[in-house]
Design a protein that fits this description.
alpha/beta; 16 strands; binds pyridoxal-5'-phosphate
Length: 395
């Protein structure tokens, strides 16, 4: 279909209806997505965009990966849903596969429906396991928009949006060993950290910081929580950021997941060690939809697709390729992050670069740092596709 044939007509009417019947809380790009495949989406106007934002860090397996789509369809034909009041083969298989990919000593999963909910449950488990209330989190981290998660979010305006905040949340400085020694104490139930701070502008801490963080939590008996809603499920070039090289092998007591976990079907999870899981009794946690069969089929197929298509290896190759190809682009000041969670730092404002890329039909993301453009592409993105970005940035 040529672009000229279907001008702005269909999009205008789609936009008009959404704007009329939805609360105006989202800043949207000026098109409607009709179809997706791999790293590409097609709009109602017949245009094609390269999606280096991965449907908001969700579509790690690419848009509508055939293995995932097939698994969801097959499960829908069997049974759409039953809650945790019954056993389910697909739930057991998804949990087993997820726990098997996790670093020791994480041994059990609790399923929920989103990132913020995973973090709420993680903080609750930390309180239950320690009998304490205080939660420490870091300047620049983002943990979600429900009450406890937004109270742990010391980033820009977010915490204020969540007022009145949940009490007993205290801020520490990301990357500062002095700060963690000062703030994490015998009253601390849990410490939650976004190990690469994506929304803050892809900010990283050195491996020694994670070693000190683990040691301090052990010293005072606090549970350490990694919010891997963005870093998890292969994005940084390992199944989990926990236990990987950039953390010097540090594994927390709880890892939280969402976004990529279901390739687009809403699902969240907490992975916990025995110390935490043994503190949880019947009915301490729960959610109607968590562990539903469609979500579990999506989780299992997502993990299989990542494994079968060697996407974790590809995520590492993406970083190497972009670091090399962008090294001589004059406007690029630096590359931040790991694997397929990358920040490109510019001399000028990233929002201008974002708009320029959008005009050239490339979707990227901005961040809270005005100079950092974020890339969160599907883990299957190819060098040829990345080169379209490189050419656009050079041009
Ligand atoms: C690191 C991190 N944690 C938590 C969340 C919240 O996840 P959700 O929007 O699924 O509630 C997000 C969402 O962007 C996130 O990036």
């Amino acid at each position: 279909m040529s672009n000229a044939a279907v001008t702005s007509g269909p999009f205008d009417s789609i936009k008009r209806i959404e704007d009329e019947f939805q609360v105006a809380t989202y800043k949207k790009m000026p098109f409607s997505v009709e179809r997706g495949q791999g790293c590409w989406v097609w709009t109602s106007n017949g245009e094609k965009y390269l999606d280096l934002y991965g449907g908001h860090a969700v579509c790690a397996t690419g848009h509508s990966h055939p293995h995932v789509v097939k698994a969801i369809k097959a499960q829908a034909d069997r049974v759409l849903f039953y809650s945790n009041l019954v056993y389910s083969d697909i739930r057991g298989r998804a949990a087993e596969k997820l726990v098997s990919a996790a670093p020791e000593p994480l041994t059990k999963a609790f399923f929920c429906n989103s990132g913020t909910e995973a973090n709420e449950n993680a903080m609750r488990m930390a309180r239950m396991a320690t009998g304490r209330h205080k939660i420490v989190s870091f300047s620049g981290g983002f943990h979600g928009r429900t009450a406890d998660s937004i109270s742990a979010t010391f980033l820009g305006k977010y915490r204020k949006i969540g007022e009145p905040n949940v009490p007993h949340h205290v801020e520490a400085e990301f990357g500062s060993v002095e700060s963690i020694r000062e703030v994490i104490d015998q009253e601390t139930a849990g410490v939650i950290i976004e190990p690469i701070q994506s929304m803050a502008g892809v900010k990283e801490a050195p491996p020694e910081f994670f070693t000190e963080l683990r040691a301090r939590c052990d010293e005072v008996g606090a549970a350490l929580i990694f919010d891997e809603v963005q870093t998890g499920i292969g994005r940084t070039g390992a199944w989990f950021f926990a236990g990987s090289e950039p953390t010097a092998g540090v594994v927390p007591n709880i890892v939280t997941l969402a976004k990529a976990l279901g390739s687009g079907v809403p699902v969240g999870a907490c992975l916990v060690d025995d110390k935490v899981s043994s503190a949880i009794k019947e009915n301490d946690l729960g959610t109607t939809f968590g562990g539903g069969m469609i979500a579990m089929a999506a989780v299992l197929a997502t993990l299989e697709a990542i494994e079968n298509d060697k996407m974790i290896e590809n995520a590492r190759a993406v970083e190497t390729h972009l670091r090399s190809e962008l090294s001589d682009v004059s406007t690029v000041k630096g590359i931040l992050g790991k694997g397929c969670l990358l920040g490109i730092e510019f001399e000028t404002t990233a929002s201008e670069v974002f708009s320029g890329l959008l005009e050239r039909k490339v979707i990227a993301g901005t961040s809270s740092d005005p100079k950092v453009l974020r890339l969160l592409p599907p883990l299957c993105v190819s060098k040829e596709e990345l080169n379209l970005l490189v050419e656009a940035l050079k041009g």
